[in-house]
Amino acid sequence: MESKINELLQGPIIVINLGLQKFAESLEAQKVEVVQVDWVPPAGGDKEMLDLLERLL
Amino acid sequence: MDIKQRIEKANEEATRRLISGEPVLVDIVPAREVIPGMRDKMITHAGPPIEWSRMCGAMQGAIIGMVLFEGWAKTPDEARKLLDKGEIRLEPNHHHQTVGPMAGTISPSLPLWVVENKAFGNRANCRQVEGAQQFGDYSDGALQGLRMWRDVWAPTLRKALHTIGGLDLKPIITKALQMGDELHNRHTASSSLFANQMAVAIAQTEYTNKDAVIGTLKYITNHELLFLGLAMAAGKAIADPARDIEYSTIVTAMCRNGVEFGIRVSGLGDEWFTAPAPVVDGLYMPGYSAEDAGLDMGDSAITETVGWGGFVIGGAPGILSLVGGTPEEALNYSREMKKITVGAHPIYRMPILGFAGAPIGIDIRLVVQSNVAPIIDTAIAHKDPGYPKIGAGLVRAPLECFKKALIAFSKKYSA
To answer: Would residue B15 count as lying in a domain?
Structure first.
C-alpha cells in the first residue's frame, strides 16, 4: 500500500480539496494543481438543526 | 403517510400554485379604495411589523414624506410630532395584500398597481417605484414625483388600462427574462415592453388633456424601473395562493424593514420569523460610501420569493454594473439557488443557462441543510432620513430566519 502511495506522489498529481479553501491555496502556492470543491457540513454542523432535519427531510 | 411524505406532498402543491400564477394588471387605484383596512391617518410600510421609534432613518424619512404628501402636517417637524405621539397608524404592507419598494410607504391617496392572479382570483397591490421618497427623501422635489403620479400619470394610465380591459403581465415577464432583466433591479426590457403596450392603449383612449397624455408617455418611456412595481405586485399575487398549506415548508414571503429581515412559511400561517437585517454588499452613487448605508430594506424580495431577482441574476449580466460582481459569479448564484428550491418554472427561463427554468419554491429545510441563503440583489438607502437612493448591491437572507422557522415547524407538527 505504502509503495503505491509513494508511486502516486512521484508523478504529477492533481488534488481535489473539499471545503476549507486555505488548504487549496497552500497547495497552489507550492505549484500543485488543485480542484477546489465548495463544501460545508450539513446545517453547518449545527446539532439541533441536524436532529430536526433527520425527522423532517 | 409519515411526516416527510406529508411535507413532500404539501410542497408539491405549494410549488404547483407558485408556478400556476397568471398575473394580470387590472387597475390603478388610490390605496384607500383597494387596500383592505386602509383608513385616514394610516400608512403602510415594508417588511415585518415595526413601531415608529424602532424604524431606521430611511423608513422614518419616507413616512414623514407621506405625512406631508397627505397634508396631515405642514413641516417635517410637525410630521415627526404626530408620529411621536402615535397619531398615525403604521402597519406592514404584507398584512394588507400589498407590497412596496424600499421603505414601501403607502398612504390613502397614493394610487397603486392592482394585479389579479387570474388562476386563483386573488389580488395584490404595489405602489409605483421612484428613486427618492421611497428611500427616505421627504424634500418637496421628492414629493412632487408622488403628486405627479397621483394627479397625472396614474389617472391617465388607469383610463388607458380600462380601454384595453387589463394587461396580461406573464408574456412581459417571460420575454423580459430572456432579454436580460432579472425583475428586481433590472427592468430595462420589461419597462420598455410595458410602455409599448400602454402607449397603444393610450392612443386608443379619448383624453381631454393633451399635456397629461404627453407627460404620461414621457414618464412610462423614460423610467427604467417602472416595471418593478408591477413585478412586485405580480410576485405578491403569485405567492399568496401558496400560503397556509398544512405541512408545507415553502417560503411565501421575504421582506425587510431596514432593522429586521422576515420570512413567512406556508405551513406556519401568518407568523414572521425574523433576524437582524443584513448589510448590503454594494456599489455607491458618487458622494456616498458604505459608511452612509442603512441596512437591507424593502418588500422587493417578493421577487426572489417567486424565483426572480437574485435567483435569475445569471441571465442578467447588465445588472452587475449596478450591484457589483462578475458574470461567472452571477451564473453561480442562479445555479446555487437550485439547491434550496424544489422546482423550476416551466415558462420563466434563462437562455444563458440552457433555458433552465427559474428556481422556484424556497424550502426552509434545504436552506438550513445546505447553509445556502437566498441571494437578493437590491438597492441601498441612507442610514439617516432625508436622502434619495445611494447605491445597490447583493445581500443574503439571514440563515437565522430559516432556522427559527424550522424549529417552529418542528414544534407545530410534532404530534
So the answer is: no
Instruction: Residue B4: list chain A partners with CB under 8 A.
Output: 56-57
pLDDT along chain B (415 residues), means of 10: 96 98 98 94 98 98 98 98 98 98 98 98 98 98 98 98 98 98 97 98 97 98 97 98 98 98 98 98 96 98 98 95 92 97 98 97 98 97 98 97 98 89
Q: Are residues B274 and B399 in the same domain?
A: yes
Work out the minimum CA distance from A57 to partner chain B, whole angstroms: 6
B268 part of contact set with chain A, CB < 8 Å: no
pLDDT band of A7, cuts 50, 70, 90: confident
Q: Considering only CB atoms, which residues of chain A are within 8 Å of chain B?
A: 40, 42-44, 46, 48-49, 52-53, 55-57
Angle of helix B170-177 relative to helix B226-239, nearest 10 degrees, comes to 110
Nearest to B22 by CA among B119, B164, B165: B119
Q: Specify if B16 maps to a domain.
A: no
Q: What is the pLDDT of residue A5?
A: 87
C-alpha closest to that of B99 among B276, B249, B306, B341: B306
Domain-located, residue B51: yes
Residues B224, B148 share a domain: yes
Distances (CA, A) of B325 to B2, B185, B329: 44, 14, 6
CB contact under 8 A, A49 and B7: no
| Residue in A with minimal Cα distance to B3 | A56
At A12 the pLDDT is: 86
Torsion of CA A51, A52, A53, A56, to 10 degrees: 130
What ipTM goes with this model?
A: 0.90
Contact between chains at B410 and A44 (C-beta distance less than 8 A): no
CA distance B3 to chain A (A): 7
Look up the domain containing B167 and give its range: 21-234
Given CB atoms, is B7 within the 8 Å cutoff of chain A? yes
Provide the residue type at B71 as one letter: G
